[in-house]
Amino acid sequence: MLGKGVVGGGGGTKAPKPSFVSYVRPEEIHTNEKEVTEKEVTLHLLPGEQLLCEASTVLKYVQEDSCQRGICGKLVCTDFKIAFLGDDESALDTDEIQFKNKVIGENDITLHSVDQIYGVFDEKKKTLFGQLKKYPEKLIIHCKDLRVFHFCLRYTKEEEVKRIVSGIIHHTLAPKLLKRLFLFSYATAVQNHTATDPKNHTVMFDTLEDWCWELERTKGSMKYKAVSVNEGYKVCERLPAYFVVPTPLSEENVSRFQGHGIPIWCWSCHNGCALLKMSALPKEQDDGILQIQKSFLDGIYRIIHRPPYEIVKTEDLSSNFLSLQDIQTAYCKFKQLFLIDNSTEFWDTDIKWFSLLESSSWLDIIRRCLKKAIEIIECLEAQNMNVLLLEENASDLCCLVSSLVQVMMDPHCRTRAGFQSLVQKEWIMGGHCFLDRCNHLRQSDKEEHQRHLSLPLTQSKSSPKRGFFREETDHLIKNLLGKRISKLINSSDELQDNFREFYEGWHSKPTDYHGLLLPHVEGPEIKVWAQRYLRWIPEAQILGGGTVATMSKLLEMMEEVQSLQEKIEERHHRQEALQAEAPSLLRNSARLSSLFPFALLQRHSSKPVLPISGWKALGDEEDLAKREDEFVDLGDV
Amino acid sequence: MASAPTSKYNSHSLENESIKRTSRDGINRDPAEAVPRLPGETRITDKEVIYICPFNGPIKGRVYITNYRLYLRSLETDSALILDVPLGVISRIEKMGGATSRGENSYGLDITCKDMRNLRFALKQEGHSRRDMFEILTRYAFPLAHSLPIFAFLNEEKFNVDGWTVYNPVEEYRRQGLPNHHWRITFINKCYGLCDTYPALLVVPFRATDEDLKRVATFRSRNRIPVLSWIHPENKTVIVRCSQPLVGMSGKRNKDDEKYLDVIRETNRQISKLTIYDARPSVNAVANKATGGGYESDDAYHNTELLFLDIHNIHVMRESLKKVKDIVYPNVEESHWLSSLESTHWLEHIKLVLTGAIQVADKVSSGKSSVLVHCSDGWDRTAQLTSLAMLMLDSFYRSIEGFEILVQKEWISFGHKFASRIGHGDKNHADADRSPIFLQFIDCVWQMSKQFPTAFEFNERFLITILDHLYSCRFGTFLYNCESAREKQKVTERTVSLWSLINSNKDTFKNPFYTKEINRVLYPVASMRHLELWVNYYIRWNPRIKQQQPNPVEQRYMELLALRDEYIKRLEELQLANSAKLSDPSTSPSSPSQMLPHVQTHF
């Protein structure tokens, strides 16, 4: 939730390029070197940030070659973050400073990234919340970004322990007022809004023009129009001020049910078919009202079923797809697999890793989301149908499915600016309830749901491969058949065949990376996104390996080609002046960790990590295991 | 190899069309010219069959059988399927159905292959075509049972590189800096008199006489005495391999063996103990005492530390791979993929083998102690551990030729029983001696190359090619159980080496990302979080699960490489033109290498 301005906040006067990762180029750091080293011991506050409480002689545990070491320092809590100010100055050589985060330091935990806080009392780990009667010897903080911090409070003064522990618990776990969120005081303190680079402009979709621009870009303006009926949120607070509907739809239709029951345009395909979404009409018992609703919907469907509109397939995401609860339950189990306290826990879970993964169902959910998006694409692309996504508020699974469809179909969404614009369009303007879903206000009764920004990334990781569907899919597709489509197509087998043909047909052809991209959805192809989930686990680091190794080779080669290009230009201009070599970002590529850039700041020796747990029982193979490799007749030796 | 309909074969659709028409007319025009044939390969027969493809259903085709391969070409217009299977991969041929069953597909053959697939054919009842095909296939797939030569002895292929010269033990030991003050080369096994499963040339401690070696041999299973595999170039710690000591139930001791181990320990002066890695689970090592084997006990071997690595035996590995096949062929287990994969234990075994090798490598690399590795006989798990540890320690073995030398040395020359484990030309498919130990090693190498994508000169294709020819019987490389048997059969004179094929087409097997780094020790992470099933090998017959070749990053890199070369060329041309004009030595252009100070890739 950090705006573009924040990136500049920690650094100097230089206008930074907007980026969703605030890792900075080394040149920027080198100019501020003094500031950087100081930052290790003194608390660095953002504009508008206030120190709330602190405690000295706290030990932070770090994992080192499978044993723990403590660093002594000060633990502080501000209205933005919990920070540990360590006395450890040994870390950070130049390589490591290169990719330091400007806003959130190695030992900073923003209040909103705190997931769970545990206290250790007499070697026992307990969840902490509310008022404490007894204060723990050790504080363990699990973060939403999967970092795990261990702080030892045994050497801290009692009243400081009380102050810091209750301070942290209060500021991270107690319900909050919206206006108290740090970003407001930050925004007040930082007034200057840095200009964005027009080339990498993110479309915010907060003006009529932005929507018109998107309609033009996707050539949807023939059949759809941007409307300003909700200007000032007169009709509905849930909907953005401006959005797009089918051209013949009247504005009063929109206001009739506060925007419910209205097909809202998401995106137009190159063949003119569109992806639409609709929030369901409120559920009513009263027959009279139901009659009114029915005739209203009939009227709406009449509009979008007439030419020039394509046949519409309705995809009811509320009843025929994953439930939000499924997703939440799965993610809770899944993330637990990565919140690892120590080496022993890592290796203990390693033996049953695959079954643990499977029992979380997370990868299966990812697969079903990808599959659903492909199904919708098949309708749009191969069957020339419009697809109308239907969901209670059209702000959860609609956001997920529609943005996945666009990432796969629209190469613009795979550029950085395009992806940011997509998030802005489908998630921010699409009314996804980030506050509730991420529980930023810490309301205990609100259900938390993971937003799915991780999904497109997961997908792009699994490079396109051929696919395979079986009975389960058949079953799924049967469930998915909306009423309308069943009128069009006689048998579900036919639909499945169409789908399979489309999917396999695409995978059998060479890939055009600037066109449609379909991910693989077979079991062996859906893998854990290691770069995100394993990034803070030292045992999982491959020193000098991982995909980072090939990527940095690629970048090196790109640099080399660029410098050659420049030299040729120079030659052409007969300028023989020597040009200084641009410093390479990834000089030491061979020594980068597979978890780069996340794990850079954790120091590691080159010692191998060795599993420290034993072998699981073989079960039915016990008798085989006891056999000799071959018959040995050693009697006469 | 089975291919799904691809654009490559679509161009042949016209040809297929014509085949179909002529066969309908009853004219048997034979398109056999299009069947690939190696020099020395002879046609035996051809038959019209129905290939029951597990992915695309029954396909009518014509099968050609030679003394080397089974080749099937589809006779249907909409399918361009081709099967090209060396008979060597066949492990079992069974008849399915018969007179009692009905329908066109009733007279069937089911062929089980060693490379994770089955082939099913249906034949016509008339003319005993199934019986013919069954007998011919049995004869040529299992030549040993019919007193026929293995195809490698008939193969007349010529290559411009001779793969048999790749490995020269003297040269390899010299590369390691041997002999030196502490280690000598002995020819005691020149005629395989000391140990018939060891190579002729051995490296042993300088202080141990040939007489000592003979006495040690009596106390080691199958006389496989501790000999040097690898020496660390700096700290001079060594990896030594052998078989188990013949301790037996009574706990026998052998002073010569004890002294010999102490001599090995002392070759590296800094250390007080010799580390012994017994690859077996400790219970198995104890149990082996009952059959005369055992392990080095503390009281007998004072200056040693014994550690068990818990790697299971060949039978467990064989069953594990069977289970892998069950979940990937023909259909990939979809709904519970991960737990099914876990239940095969295959990756767990891989993890243990890698973990063992990491321990060996770390012990040696850290200079803490020399290492002695054994299992029962020292030709399965021992070979896996020493070769993997050497791959981690010595970057030379990560090059194409280095890897060939590693396989040639640690596996072929030290008597990994390829003939028994693979069953070349042998019909006894249920033989308990068969086990995918070498495949497991190659899988470990693949896992390493996955974790360190820039550290190996070779690519995945290289590894798959090795595995394909492990079974194919086209080359002599993997034939027989040990060097003495190979020598007796004059394998190097009478057959072609697999390395001839590979080294004369090296470019196809190169990893473009390879960055040569000397003295870099590679420690893979032996965690299930990083180990994955080798889809491109184990599931390669499934056309629906096909990795993109080449992968997008590699493709991009190749494009950049080409671009760089073009620019360098252009720059040189510009410089030439420039210097010709000026003809002034002081402004003559610098060489490309000077101009590109940060070129880190070596090509």
Automatic annotation (TrEMBL), chain A:
<comment type="function">
    <text>Acts as an adapter for the myotubularin-related phosphatases. Regulates phosphatase MTM1 protein stability and possibly its intracellular location. By stabilizing MTM1 protein levels, required for skeletal muscle maintenance but not for myogenesis.</text>
</comment>
<dbReference type="GO" id="GO:0016529">
    <property type="term" value="C:sarcoplasmic reticulum"/>
</dbReference>
<comment type="subunit">
    <text>Heterodimer with lipid phosphatase MTM1. Heterodimer with lipid phosphatase MTMR2.</text>
</comment>
<dbReference type="InterPro" id="IPR030564">
    <property type="entry name" value="Myotubularin"/>
</dbReference>
<keyword id="KW-0703">Sarcoplasmic reticulum</keyword>
<dbReference type="GO" id="GO:0030017">
    <property type="term" value="C:sarcomere"/>
</dbReference>
<dbReference type="Pfam" id="PF12578">
    <property type="entry name" value="3-PAP"/>
</dbReference>
<dbReference type="InterPro" id="IPR029021">
    <property type="entry name" value="Prot-tyrosine_phosphatase-like"/>
</dbReference>
<feature type="domain" description="Myotubularin phosphatase">
    <location>
        <begin position="205"/>
        <end position="533"/>
    </location>
</feature>
<keyword id="KW-0175">Coiled coil</keyword>
<dbReference type="GO" id="GO:0016020">
    <property type="term" value="C:membrane"/>
</dbReference>
<dbReference type="InterPro" id="IPR011993">
    <property type="entry name" value="PH-like_dom_sf"/>
</dbReference>
<comment type="similarity">
    <text>Belongs to the protein-tyrosine phosphatase family. Non-receptor class myotubularin subfamily.</text>
</comment>
<dbReference type="GO" id="GO:0046856">
    <property type="term" value="P:phosphatidylinositol dephosphorylation"/>
</dbReference>
<feature type="coiled-coil region">
    <location>
        <begin position="551"/>
        <end position="581"/>
    </location>
</feature>
<dbReference type="InterPro" id="IPR010569">
    <property type="entry name" value="Myotubularin-like_Pase_dom"/>
</dbReference>
<dbReference type="Pfam" id="PF06602">
    <property type="entry name" value="Myotub-related"/>
</dbReference>
<keyword id="KW-0963">Cytoplasm</keyword>
<protein>
    <recommendedName>
        <fullName>Myotubularin-related protein 12</fullName>
    </recommendedName>
</protein>
<dbReference type="InterPro" id="IPR022587">
    <property type="entry name" value="MTMR12-like_C"/>
</dbReference>
TrEMBL record, chain B:
<feature type="binding site">
    <location>
        <begin position="313"/>
        <end position="314"/>
    </location>
    <ligand>
        <name>substrate</name>
    </ligand>
</feature>
<dbReference type="Pfam" id="PF06602">
    <property type="entry name" value="Myotub-related"/>
</dbReference>
<keyword id="KW-0966">Cell projection</keyword>
<dbReference type="InterPro" id="IPR000387">
    <property type="entry name" value="Tyr_Pase_dom"/>
</dbReference>
<keyword id="KW-1003">Cell membrane</keyword>
<feature type="domain" description="Tyrosine specific protein phosphatases">
    <location>
        <begin position="344"/>
        <end position="406"/>
    </location>
</feature>
<feature type="compositionally biased region" description="Low complexity">
    <location>
        <begin position="583"/>
        <end position="593"/>
    </location>
</feature>
<comment type="function">
    <text>Lipid phosphatase which dephosphorylates phosphatidylinositol 3-monophosphate (PI3P) and phosphatidylinositol 3,5-bisphosphate (PI(3,5)P2). Has also been shown to dephosphorylate phosphotyrosine- and phosphoserine-containing peptides. Negatively regulates EGFR degradation through regulation of EGFR trafficking from the late endosome to the lysosome. Plays a role in vacuolar formation and morphology. Regulates desmin intermediate filament assembly and architecture. Plays a role in mitochondrial morphology and positioning. Required for skeletal muscle maintenance but not for myogenesis.</text>
</comment>
<dbReference type="GO" id="GO:0019215">
    <property type="term" value="F:intermediate filament binding"/>
</dbReference>
<keyword id="KW-0472">Membrane</keyword>
<feature type="active site" description="Phosphocysteine intermediate">
    <location>
        <position position="375"/>
    </location>
</feature>
<dbReference type="InterPro" id="IPR003595">
    <property type="entry name" value="Tyr_Pase_cat"/>
</dbReference>
<keyword id="KW-0904">Protein phosphatase</keyword>
<dbReference type="InterPro" id="IPR030564">
    <property type="entry name" value="Myotubularin"/>
</dbReference>
<dbReference type="GO" id="GO:0005886">
    <property type="term" value="C:plasma membrane"/>
</dbReference>
<dbReference type="GO" id="GO:1902902">
    <property type="term" value="P:negative regulation of autophagosome assembly"/>
</dbReference>
<dbReference type="InterPro" id="IPR010569">
    <property type="entry name" value="Myotubularin-like_Pase_dom"/>
</dbReference>
<dbReference type="GO" id="GO:0046716">
    <property type="term" value="P:muscle cell cellular homeostasis"/>
</dbReference>
<feature type="region of interest" description="Disordered">
    <location>
        <begin position="579"/>
        <end position="603"/>
    </location>
</feature>
<comment type="subunit">
    <text>Heterodimer with MTMR12. Interacts with KMT2A/MLL1 (via SET domain). Interacts with DES in skeletal muscle but not in cardiac muscle. Interacts with SPEG.</text>
</comment>
<keyword id="KW-0963">Cytoplasm</keyword>
<dbReference type="GO" id="GO:0004438">
    <property type="term" value="F:phosphatidylinositol-3-phosphate phosphatase activity"/>
</dbReference>
